[in-house]
Amino acid sequence: MTAAANLPGAVTPRGTKPKTVFAPRNIMLYGTLLIFSMYYLLPLYVMIVTSLKDMAEIRMGNVFSPPVEITFAPWVKAWAEACTGINCDGLSRGFWNSVRILIPSLIISVSIAALTGYVLACWRFKGSEIFFGILLLGAFIPYQVLLYPLVIILRELGLFGSLWGLVLVHTIFAMPINVLLFRNYFVALPEELFKAARVDGAGFWGIFFRIVIPMSLPIFVVSGIIQVTGIWNDFLFGVVYTRPENYPMTVQLNNIVNSVQGVQEYNVNMAATLLTGLVPLVVYFFSGRLFVRGIAAGAVKG
Amino acid sequence: MTHSIEIKELKLAFGAVTVLEDLNLQVGQGEFLVLLGSSGCGKSTLLNCIAGLLDITDGEIHIQGHNVTWEEPSKRGIGMVFQSYALYPQMTVEGNLAFGLKNARMPRPEIAKRIKRASEILQIEPLLKRKPAALSGGQRQRVAIGRALVRDVDVFLFDEPLSNLDAKLRADLRVEIKRLHQTLQNTMIYVTHDQVEAMTLADRIAIMKGGQIMQLAPPAEIYNRPVNKYVAGFIGSPAMNVMEGQLDAGNSEFASARGLSFTVKGYEFDGAPTSGPVWLGLRPEHVQSGKWAAGQPIQREALVDMVEPMGSDTQVWARVDGQEIRFRMDGQEKVDIGDRVPIGFDPARLSLFDKSTEIRL
Ligand SMILES: Nc1ncnc2c1ncn2[C@@H]1O[C@H](COP(=O)(O)OP(=O)(O)OP(=O)(O)O)[C@@H](O)[C@H]1O
Ligand SMILES: [Mg+2]
After folding, report:
1. Order of strands across the sheet with B3-14?
2. Which 3 state secondary structure label does DSSP give A292?
3. Which is deepest, A178, A264, B80, B317, by most CB within 10 Å?
4. Co-location of A183 and A287 in the same domain
C-alpha cells in the first residue's frame, strides 16, 4: 500500500485526516466517561432533589423525579433544628466545632510538617535519614493500634476530650505523609540556592521564610488540601477523642441520620450530608488547578 | 598579612570518603587563582571549604589574616558565583542584589548606592526591576556576579561560572571577568575545567587531581614545564605527544623512542640526569615542518599517516623513524597522506618524565 502511494502520479491524500465524530474510538472513550460520570453524579443528583422535596412527596416513592414544589425547609432544619440525641440545634454546632478543630490543626500540622521537611532536606544531621525512615514507617501503622495508647497519652496530658487534644492527634497523624511531601519537594530545589543564601548571610529561618517558602506555594496547597479534607472528613478521631459538646460535623451528621426517634426524614438527612460535604467540595473547586500543579511538580522533580 | 588566603593541612572527608587531604595553598593579595582539573577531582569541594559551606575535617583556613576555619560563610568576606547562577527566583534583580546587604542590616541609602555602583560596572541597570526568569543566561550570570560585588568582599569565589553559557557568551563574559579583576584588584579563585579559561584568566593555575594539587604555577610555566605526565597531558590542545622511550645519560644525553633517537642538548634537567626508561613529551605546536624545519636542532623526515584540516592550521599524524607523532602545519600548506614532510624540533622544549614516577626529569 505504501509502495503504491509513493509511486509518482499516484493520488495520495493530503492534509490532516478528516475526523469522524462517531469513530469507534470516540464512542468508546466518551461512552466510558459518560457512564462513569453518571455513576458518580447520579447519587449526588438524588441527594439534591430529595433534599429539596417535602416528606409527602418523598413518600410517593420516585427518587429520580425532580421536586414538584421546591422547599428549603429541610436545609434549614438540618442546619439549625435537627436533633442529635441531646441537643436540637442541628448541624450548626458541629460545623463550628469542625471549624474550630480544622483551623488550628491545619495551621499547626502544615507548619510542623513543612519545617520538619525543610530540616530533613536542607539541614541534614547525623541520623536524619533514620529519623525520616522511622517517620515514614509511621504511615504504615494502622490507626486502630494507636487509638488506645493515644487515649492514655491525652489523659496524661490533661487534653482528653478537649478540642486541643484532637488538634494534637490530627497533627501527629498528619506527619508522615506531609513531611514526605515537603521533604521531597525541598530536596528538589537547587542546592546552590541554599549555598548562595548562606553566603548572603541568611540563617536557618531566613532561608526558610525568604527563600524556601516563596518557592513552594504548590506544595503548601497540596498539603493544605490533604489536611483540610482529611481533618474535615475525620470521624474516628472525633468520636474517640472528644466529648459530645465538641463533636465535629461528621459525628453530628451521623447522630442526626441515625437518630431513631420518630420517622426518618430523608430530606433532612440528605441536606445535612450535603452541608457536611460542602467544605471539601469548595476547597477542591477553588484549588484544583494548584493541587494538580503541586502534585505534578513533585512528581517531575522526583 | 601577606597572603589573602592561606590554607593549612586541609582535610575533608564525606564519611569514609576522603576527598581532600593535606592540602596547603597560599593565595596572594589580588591574585587570580584558577583551580583546574577533571570532573570529580575536588575543585568545588575546595572552594566550598574556603567559602565555609562545608565543615572541614581537619586543618585551618585563613582569609585576610583571620582564622575563619569555623566562621559562617557570610562572615568570611567572600562572595560566591555559581554555575547555575543560583538567583532567588521570587525576587527581582534588585532584590537579589540587596538580599545579602539587608541580611547584614545595612542602611537603605548605602544599599541603594552599592546596587547603583555594581549595576553600572556590570551594565545591568535596565534589568533591576526584572525577575531572574526574564533574563538571558549571560544576564543572569552578571547579576550573580553583582550579588558578590555589592557585598564589597575581599575574595571572589567562582565555581564554573561560565559552563552553562554558549561559546560566544562565554568568551565575552570571560573578558569581562578579567576586566573586573583588573578594576577591582580583588583576590579571585576560579574553578573551571576549561583550560582556555584557565590560561587566559589566571595569574597562577592549580592543577588538581584526586584531591591534590599537582602543580601550582603561572600559566606559562604550567605549559612549558609541566611537573608530571598528568599535567603535561592535561594542558595543551591538541594534547602533547607522549612517547615511551629511553634516556641515555652519557656525555651527550641521548634519548630515543622506538626508531627515533636524538640528543637532548639544551634540555634543562631538574636534577642530574640518569639513564633509564622515560616518557618523552613533545607538544604538537613545537614541531616545525616544511621550510621552518630547517633551523631546528633536530631534523627528520615524517611520513604522513593522516591529516585533519582545520582551516587556520592542519593537524597531521605522521611517522618519524617508526615513532608516531602528531603536529600542526600551516593551513595554507598542501599535505596529503603518504607525503614525506621535513620536520624539526628543539629538544629544549621537550618534557622528559621518569617512566615509573612520571615526574619531570
Ligand atoms: N556530599 C558528598 N558526599 C560524598 N561524596 C561527595 C559529596 N560531594 C562530593 N563528593 C565527592 O567528592 C569528589 C569531589 O567532588 P567535587 O564536587 O569537588 O568535584 P569537582 O572537581 O568540582 O567536579 P566537577 O568538575 O564535576 O564539578 C567527587 O568524587 C564526589 O563524588
Ligand atoms: Mg564542581
Report:
1. B17-28, B3-14, B58-63, B66-67
2. helix
3. B80
4. yes
Entry pTM: 0.83
CB distance B40 to ligand 1 below 6 Å: yes
Look up residue A4 and give its three cell numbers: 503504491
In 3D space, the residue among B205, B204, B187, B184 whose CA is nearest the CA of residue B29 turns out to be B187
Going from the Cα of A257 to the center of ligand 1, the distance in angstroms, rounded, reads 64
Cβ neighbours of A195 (radius 10 Å): 20
**A54 and A138 both lie in a single domain:** no
A211 CB neighbours in chain B (<8 A) are 88
Give yes or no for A3 touching B (CB within 8 A).
no
Same domain, A164 and A39: no
- Protein residues placing their CB within 5 Å of the ion ligand 2: B 44
Q: Is B193 in the pocket of ligand 1 (CB under 6 A)?
A: yes
Q: Which structural domains are found in chain B, ordered by start?
A: 3-233 (3.40.50.300), 237-354 (2.40.50.140)
Buried b (16+ CB within 10 A) or exposed e, A40-71: eeeeeeebebbbbbbeebbeeeeeeeebeeeb
Q: Which atom of ligand 1 is nearest to the CA of B46?
A: 18
Residues A38 and A171 in one domain: no
Pocket of ligand 1, candidates B10, B12, B36, B45: which has the most ligand atoms within 8 Å of its Cβ, to mutate?
A: B45
Is residue A4's pLDDT more than 50? no
Q: Whose CA is nearest to atom 9 of ligand 1?
A: B45
B302: β partners: B320, B341
- pLDDT for the residue A3: 45
- Indicate which CATH number applies to the domain containing A196: 1.10.3720.10
The number of angstroms, rounded, from the C-alpha of B203 to the middle of its chain's C-alpha atoms is: 10
**Eight-state DSSP code of residue A210:** I
CA B360 to ligand 2 center in whole angstroms:
28
- Inspect the interface and report whether the beta carbons of B100 and A199 lie closer than 8 Å: yes
Any B CB within 8 A of A217 CB: no
A238-249 tens-digit pLDDT: 988 988 888 899
**Average per-residue pLDDT for chain B:** 91
Count structural domains, chain A. Answer: 2
Structural domain boundaries, residue A151: 92-301
The string of pLDDT tens digits covering residues A23-69 is: 888 889 999 999 999 998 998 899 999 989 888 888 887 878 888 88
For residues A67 and A135, state if they share a domain. Answer: no
**Does A215 lie in the same domain as A110?**
yes
**Complex ipTM over 0.90:** no
Whether residues A61 and A200 share a domain: the answer is no
CA of B46 to the centre of ligand 1 (A): 10
Is the Cβ atom of B17 under 6 angstroms away from ligand 1?
yes
The predicted model gives A163-173 an average pLDDT of 92
Q: How many Cβ atoms are within 10 Å of A116's Cβ, its own excluded?
A: 19
> What are the tens digits of pLDDT across the range B321-346?
888 899 999 888 888 899 999 999 99
- Are A165 and A104 in contact by the 8 Å Cβ rule? The answer is no
In this structure, the answer to whether residues A188 and A264 fall within a common structural domain is: yes
